[in-house]
Amino acid sequence: MRRKIVAGNWKMNYGLIQTESLIVELKKQTKSSDAEVMIAPTFTNLWHAFEATRRHDIEVIAQNMHFAQQGAYTGEISAGMLKSIGIQTVILGHSERRAYFNETDEALAKKINTGLENDMDMIFCFGEELADRKAGNQEAVVESQIKNALFHLEADAFKHIILAYEPVWAIGTGETATPEQAQEMHAFIRKTLASKYGQKVAESVSILYGGSVKPNNAKEIFSKPDVDGGLIGGASLKAEDFFAIVNAI
Ligand code: 13P
Q1: Closest atom, ligand 1, to C-alpha of 125
Q2: Which atom of ligand 1 is nearest to the CA of 96?
Q3: Where are the beta strands (DSSP E) in the chain?
Q4: Per residue in 110-165, pLDDT tens?
C-alpha cells in the first residue's frame, strides 16, 4: 500500500512564538484518517518543532537543503545538519526555489543524491507554469523535470522518494487544478515512472498534489486514485484548516 501523506509547507512564515502556538493547536486536533501528517517549519524552528512534537503523530520535515555534505557554503544547511537534529525528510525542488533561487534540474539531481547518501526521505516537487499548460505542454515539462532529476537513480532509491505535483499556476493563487486535471497528471507521472522502472515501482511511489488545496476542495482531489495526499501551503498555517484537509483523506 502506498503511503498517504498530508504535509504542511509553512514556507517563510512564523517565528518561534507563532510556531509554538501553531504546534500547540495542531496537537489538540484529532486525526480520523490514516494519512501521515508532516509539517515543514522554517530552519530556525525545526529543532523546537521536533522536540515539541516528539510524542505526537506529526513528522517535522525541512523545506530545503544544500547538495554538499559540508564546507564553505555560507548560509546553507546540509543533510547532516538536518539529520543531527532528527529530521528525516526534506522537501526539494519547490517551484519557489526553482524560480527565485535558480535551482536547476541538475542541482536537484545532486541534492537527491546527497539525500540518499544520508539515508533521508525526500518530497521532490515539480510542475508546469501557466504558459506551459496554455500551450498544452504540461506533460512534456513534467516529464523532463522528473527525468532530469531522478532517472539516474536505481529502482531501489524510490523507497526514499515521494513526488509532489505542484502546478505553478495553482500555488497561492486560489486556483486549483480540477480533480480531473490532477488525476490525469498523476496517472501520467506514474506511467512515466513505469516506463523506466516498471509497474511495481511506479505503483509504490506516493504522488502528492499541491496548489491551493483547502478544506472545501481536498476531499474531491484526494478521492482520485492516483492522488496519495497533498502538499499544503497557506491552509497549513491554521491548525483547524490543516486537519480538515488531513481528515479529508
Ligand atoms: P498553497 O497551498 O498556498 O497554494 O501552496 C502550495 C505549495 O506551494 C505547497 O508547497
Answers
A1: 10
A2: 8
A3: 5-9, 36-40, 58-60, 89-92, 121-126, 161-165, 207-210, 229-232
A4: 999 999 999 999 999 999 999 999 999 999 999 999 999 999 999 999 999 999 99
Question: Do 123 and 162 form a contact (C-beta atoms < 8 A)?
Answer: yes
Residue closest via CA to ligand 1's atom 9 equals 233
How does DSSP classify residue 118? T
- Pairing mode of beta strands 5-9, 229-232: parallel
Our mutation pick for probing the ligand 1 site, out of 122, 125, 166, counting the most ligand atoms within 8 A of Cβ, is 166
Cell of 128: 508546469
Is the pTM for the entire model greater than 0.85? yes
Say what percent of the chain tops pLDDT 70.
100
**Which of 90, 209, 213 to mutate for ligand 1's pocket (most ligand atoms within 8 Å of CB)?**
213
Amino acid at 85: I
CB 120 within 8 Å of CB 83 = yes
> What positions carry a catalytic annotation?
94, 166
What span, in angstroms and rounded, lies between the C-alpha atoms of 171 and 95? 9
Grid coordinates given for 161: 522518494
CA of 72 to the centre of ligand 1 (A): 32
